[in-house]
Amino acid sequence: MTNNDASKSMPDSVPQTIPFFFGPATLLIPFLIFAAASVYLFVFLKVFDLMALAGAGLASLVSGALLTRSPKAYWKAVLEGAASELTATVLLLLMAAGVFSAMMKAAGLAQALAVLTGGAIAGTPFLTPAVFLISAVLATATGSSISTILAASPIFLPFGAALGCDVPMLAGAILSGAIFGDNLAPVSDVAIISAMTQSDNAGRPIDLGEVVRTRFPFAMAALILTLPFYFFGSTGRAEALEVFEEADLMSLVMIIPVALLIFVAIRSKDALHAVTLATVTGLVLGLLTGILTPAQIVSVKDGAISGVITGGIANVSGIMLMCLALFGFTGVIHRTGLADAAEKFLGREAASPRSAETLLAVVTVLISAALAAVTSVAVALAGQLADKLLRDRIDPYRRAYLLAGFANSLPVILPFSAFSLITLSAASSLGDASLTPFTLMTATYYPVALFVVFTLSIVTGIGRPKAQA
C-alpha cells in the first residue's frame, strides 16, 4: 500500500485536528463576532429577529473557515456537529413546539385568562401579582416568552395604566411571567435545548420530562419569592374597565392540552410524543368548541399557505437555523485543543461539585450577557461546553436546570438585553415616560429570584444528588 493510499484511509478513523493560524484560541474570534453581532442587532438596530441572528451565526462560521489552514477539515467538523442526532432531535422538537405555541396563541388563551381575573381584581393589590401569574401560565402553555410579552402587554398595560397602576411594575410582572415559562415549559426552546445538550456518563441523552420535573421545585421557589414584591408594590384605583370585549371564556378549555403536555412528558419520558399528542388534542378541542376554525389551522389564498401549522414552524425557523449553525460550531470546538486545555483547567478549578457548579453558573451568565440574553443561543453554547467538560462532575439533570436557570436570571434584566428591549417595544404605544430600561430592570423580580434560588442551591447543595454531594 502506498503512502497516499494509507492517508486516504485514515481520516474516517482518526479525527483530524484543525490547524488555526494563531492557535486554538483563534476559535474565540468567531464567537466574539457573533456576540458583537447579537448586541448590535438587538441593542443598536433594535432588530428582534432570530432569522437575522441565524445569519450572524452563519457569518461567524464562515469567519472561522477563513482563519484555518485546513478549510476542508473545518467544514467537515461543522457538518459532524450539525448532522448529529442531538441536532436532529432539537430541530424536530422546536418545530413541534412552534406549532403548539401558534395554536395556543390563535385560541386566545391570554384574553380568556384576563377576562377570568381582570374585572374582579382591578384596582386591588392583587392585580399586579395576577398579571405575573397569568403571564407565567401563558408562557408555560405556549413555551414562548416573546409571544407572551407581545400578547400580554397590549392587554394588561393599557388596562393597568387607566387604573393608575405602576406601569414599570406591570411590565416587569409580564416579563417575569414570560421568564417563568421560558425556564419551565416543556415546549420552551430553552428547556428543550438545555435538556437535549446534556447526556449522562454513558453518553445517553437525558429525558426532557424528567428535566421539567427536577427544575419545577426551583421554579416554584422563585415564583413564591417573587409574589410578595408585586403584591406590596401594587397601586391603582378600585373601578374596573371593560377592555376585554373580544375575549371568549371558552378558550380556557385550552388548559387541557397544556396539562396533557406536562403529564405525558413526565410520564412517558418522550418529549416529541407529548408535544404532538397535546397539539392534536388542542386542535381537536379547538375545532369542536369553535375556538379554532379550519382556516386558522391551514388555509390557502392567492397561492400562499398560512395557518397555525406553517406559521408555527416559521416562528421558530430562526432559532432552528441558529441551532444548526451553533451546533456546527461546537463540532469545530471538538477538533481543536480548546477542549483539552479547558479540561486541564477544570481539573484544578472544578475539583469539587460546588466549584464545578459555580464555574458553570459564571460561564452561563457571562455567555448569556454577552449575547444580549438571547437565552436559547446562550444555553446551546454553554450546554455543549458543559456536557463535554463537566459531564463527570455534575449530574446531567442538575446541569440542565442550572444552565436554563442562570441564563434566564440576571442577564435578562440588563438594559441592553433582548427581553428588556422587546418588552419596551411592546409597551411603546402606551407612551408612558416612567417606563425605561432602568425602571423595568428594577421591577423585574423573577429573574433575580431565579439567581438567588440557584445560587443558594449551589452553596447549600440543595438538589444536588447525594452521590455528588
TrEMBL record:
Stored InterPro entries: Na/H_Antiport_NhaC-like_C, NhaC_Na-H+_Antiporter
GO molecular function: antiporter activity
A cellular component term, taken from the record's GO annotations: plasma membrane
Transmembrane segments: 20-43, 50-67, 73-94, 159-180, 216-235, 247-266, 272-292, 304-329, 359-381, 401-424, 444-463
Domain Na+/H+ antiporter NhaC-like C-terminal intervals: 20-233
UniProt keyword Membrane present: yes
Keywords tagged on the record: Antiport, Cell membrane, Membrane, Transmembrane, Transmembrane helix, Transport
Cellular localization per UniProt: Cell membrane
Membrane topology of this protein: Multi-pass membrane protein
Family: Belongs to the NhaC Na(+)/H(+) (TC 2.A.35) antiporter family.
Name this polypeptide is given: Na+/H+ antiporter NhaC-like C-terminal domain-containing protein
